[in-house]
Amino acid sequence: MQSNKKKQNAGITALYCRLSRDDGTECESNSIANQKKYLAQKAKEYGFTNTKYYLDDGYTGTNTNRPGFQSMLDDIDVGFVSVVMVKDLSRLGRDYVAVGSFLDSYFPEHGVRFIAVNDMVDSAEGENEIAPFKNVMNEMYARDISQKIKTSHRLRGNMGEPLAPPPYGYMKDPLNKKKWVIDPEAAGIVRDIFRMCIEGKGNETIARLLQERQVLVPMAYWQSKGLPRGGKKTQENPYKWCKTTVAKILSQQEYCGDVINFKSYSKSFKNKTRIQNDPSQWKIFKDVHEPIISRDTFEQVQALVAKTKRRAPNKKLAEKNMFCDILYCADCGHKMWFNVCHPNTSITHFKCSNYKSNRGTCEGTHYIRADSLETVVLMELKKLTNYLRDDEEEFAGILEAKTNSSIAAQQKATQEALQKAIVRSKDVDRLYEGLYENMVNGKVTDQWYMHMSQKYELERGELQDKIRKYRVELLGLEDVRHEKDHFLSAIRTFMRMQTLTPVLLRELIDKIEVHRIEGTGKNRTQQITIHYKFIGALEIPAGPKNERLKLDTRRGVAVEYLPNTVTA
């Protein structure tokens, strides 16, 4: 009993709080705040001091795809959590099977004590026979709420009320949220897109012109206006339009003033994935709101789109090249894309995906033919195997020195950062405890306690994330020391085969950086840097033959490929 209590005090007590729109009409922030305050009080009564909040405000309990919940599971997997406490079982989730799996298998396997305060469930007291019935009731509640919402949506949709958020170009009427009104700024872009399509411009050309005009993509535009919208919210270039976005805008009948409901559906209240409905199942209400474009213009565009023939997929592109996903531009760091030359489809090549002429920022294409790349990589690998064969002891010494020197520096820096984070985490814990005692003794107000506790909770959460990350990094660095033997084994496999396969390529090479071609005429050279698995870029001593390789890139134009070198 003493050892169990010691273990629980050593780990984190996870205080998990969740609230979704289905859980009631009370204010979400206040409800989460009440859960936090309630759990903090109960944790103190149980004698748990090292607590951490995991919050999911506005997330359904019918699945586990919740950021706070997943963060808690990550900490449990690493071994940082010894106790999980919730207000009641429904906060953990409303999926009977999932919650039962956590209670019966996951938590016991990870040595985690689970407490649901209001339901009087405590795994330290043995199995609770009532818990399964409560889980079933929680799921039935979610199912019932889902059915009511679905019925309500069906009624509203059949009455012509728009169920989906307004598309780019419209916004909700501030006076009536059930109506759409034109957003003048975005609507102008929509009209331009339709106009350019009628003028004969393709979707890629339209996207490029919008990018050149520095027009924000829809998601970036909504974010700039402070409008909450679902979808991918992180994009490196907020002005880089995709041809698929242009195609979607051109296909939306809503711009004629229509409302179209039931375009998609979900199979179950547990699975929120939207599935496209057959157009015959759509419910269309015409001339509901002010149109952005005329119906004639929309139909004209649909006729143009229907006439556009899509190029048949190229068989060479359908078969993924083995160098895909490991080839990178040496200047900008972006991946290089696999391409087929037209009309000469026998020539395949790679070029920088961020090339400026393709609406990127990289100044060079970093073009390299796939067959030339394979020849150069084979040459470097053979040079590596020859060196291993001629002087295995020296080669092993190079690997050992390379591994030890790089890992030692990383370990020292990571250990220093870990120690600083641990010291600060202990300081924050002491400050937090002192703040709580001052609140109980009446030395600080409840408002000040809530303000400072939230600040400490945030910092403590960030510190725990850092500590976990540093510990995982240290474990990973320790593992790298033992990967040298695996690397040598992969080289010996290549020595026997003398051919390069996709599996062997990925066992030997982490990534390949392609530099731009330098020089002109007969003096054209190109540097390729190979980063091997576990040891990075490795410069092999020069040999008598095959040090430099000159290959044709096209008729009459040759490039000399330099041996693998490491720049300081």
Can you tag this structure with a few keywords?
Hect, E3 ligase catalytic domain fold; Rossmann fold; alpha/beta; five-stranded mixed β-sheet; flat; 568 residues
Q: Which structural category do the helix and sheet elements fall into?
A: alpha/beta
CATH architecture of the domain at 160-307: Alpha-Beta Complex
Looking at the chains present, what oligomeric state does this protein adopt?
single chain
Broad CATH class of the domain at 160-307: Alpha Beta
Cα(first) to Cα(last) distance is 58 Å
Classify the fold: give the CATH topology of the domain at 160-307. Hect, E3 ligase catalytic domain fold
Describe the largest sheet: 6 strands, mixed
CATH homologous superfamily identity of the domain at 160-307: Putative Large Serine Recombinase, Chain B, Domain 2
* Count of alpha/pi helices: 17
Number of DSSP strand runs: 20
Poorly predicted ranges: 1-9, 25-29
Nearest-integer average pLDDT: 80
Provide the gyration radius in Å: 31 Å
Strand content: 15-25%
Shape: flat
Proportion of helical residues: 40-55%
